[in-house]
Amino acid sequence: SQGVITMPLPLGVEAHRRWVEAQQSPDKAGYLIKQGAKAKNWKKRWFILKEEYIFYCKDKSWPQGIINIMGCTLTEMSDKKKGKFSLQATKSVSKDAKWTGRTYYMVASTDADMREWMEAIQENSGEAQTKRSHTISIMSEAIQTQNGLM
Questions:
Q1: Deepest in the core among 17, 65, 70, 73, taking most CB within 10 A?
Q2: What is the average pLDDT score of the chain?
Q3: Per-residue pLDDT averaged across 102-124, rounded?
Q4: Is 16 in a helix, a strand, or coil?
């Protein structure tokens, strides 16, 4: 029987630059088990989070997929599998529109590891950054008021 030949994910110049940066200085990296889009089987993959992108691959050498996490929805799943969570992507990295709105199901090795991944993704997805900058502006107003500047 012949094996299935899978072609590497073609990366444009910008995506390739981000992939190299992600490998050199990831915001978070580690193994997660991801459910496949078509066969719905579970496979261990290496995930790298860098800024607003998650890259995942079989063997750390070349990405099989890229997820844009801006505005994504994260959900902790109550399931038999510990550490299971989902990420619904609102943006597509691919030209194929079917990946916009795709929900990725992933399982971390422990609940603690799952929470670390979810926190890191939330921080990089724009949501936490907006809240943080809002808090900073409120604090600076309070300091200026306290110092009699407002």
A1: 65
A2: 77
A3: 91
A4: helix
